[in-house]
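User: If only I could read backbone structure tokens as easily as an amino acid sequence. Underneath my words sits a plain record pairing an amino acid chain with its backbone structure tokens. This is the protein in question:
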Amino acid sequence: MRKLLFFSFLVLFLISCGSTKNTGKVPEAIIGKTERKTKPTRKVSPSKITAKEDEKNNEPANSEASAKEIKKDIIDYAKTFQGTRYKFGGTTDAGMDCSGLVCTAFQKENITLPRISRDMAKKGILISLKEIEEGDLVFFKTSSRNVINHVGLVVEAKRGEVKFIHSTTRAGVIISSLDEDYWKKAFVEVRRII
């Protein structure tokens, strides 16, 4: 019985968050992909952000600037977890997995996302890789099961290079580049939540 339990745990560990290699091509995400209806979550976009009161001047803030501030705050908070060890199901500095990192960072700004990466991939809007911005989510298929099972938060998108923060089984919370062969091959799509 112990061996069966150990084997089951080992299999779960290996198929979670970036542990195996996918040899598929790098698809370009296309806007307009049909989506299934899912449970609604708070969606924030530059055009739909409610105007916040500027605490110093008592004037409404520019909604585009507010969206950028929210994205920056989410990224900055996610970066505070760099070096945190990987823990399946974890959401704290004691350990976290990829979707736990993203959920925790967005939750800090009162934006609720699904807890599982494949469910997160149904939220927001699908965008082209060419339109990627800081604060977008990148999704990957890293197992042989051919389903989305890994997510990262874009922290930098400059001069064609995309860097994202995520949690891996081997190194914990780190920043990686989409130019790395492993992530390039496992890449599936980009989604914008804010």
About this structure: The chain has one domain: 2-192. Residues 9-15, 18-61 have pLDDT under 50 and may be disordered. DSSP finds five helices and eight strands in the chain.
